[in-house]
Amino acid sequence: MAVAVDFGDAAAMAELCVATDLSPASTPAIDLAMRWARALPATVVLLHVVHDPVLAPALGNDVPGDIAAAKVRLQQLAGAAPDVTCRIVVRAADDVVGTIVAAAAGSHYLFVGTHGRSGFQRLRLGSVAAAVLRQSHVPVVCVPAGRG
Fold first, then answer.
1. Quick check: is 74 in a domain?
2. pLDDT tens per residue across span 35-70
3. In this structure, are residues 43 and 87 in contact, taking their beta carbons and an 8 Å threshold?
């Protein structure tokens, strides 16, 4: 299904943010943002938030290692689209949703992938995409896993 979007003055369309958990479910959102960026053109911000709970040291979390690994993976994703200007942003925070919303505040659109969980799985695991959709002041493009 093709959707026509009127961006008005393309020069004003400067930044598309993609919040990714680096799972395969986020790949369609990244792909769609890259296609939009080529068409406009626009810069793509590849954003990943490492969950850094207050109890991270007690839980044995390797937050610095997770941050370094995320940067490497985001650089690989950016390298796969050499014709698109990408900026990599990695943050560590306990409030993942709030951090995504704040980081995307200067963007024109925020892209998120959805895992497509429902029922008990969604209740147990929550939905970052749904929370971002509710809290964001930037238009959010939710892309289901397997689409794009």
1. yes
2. 999 999 999 999 999 988 776 566 667 888 899 999
3. yes
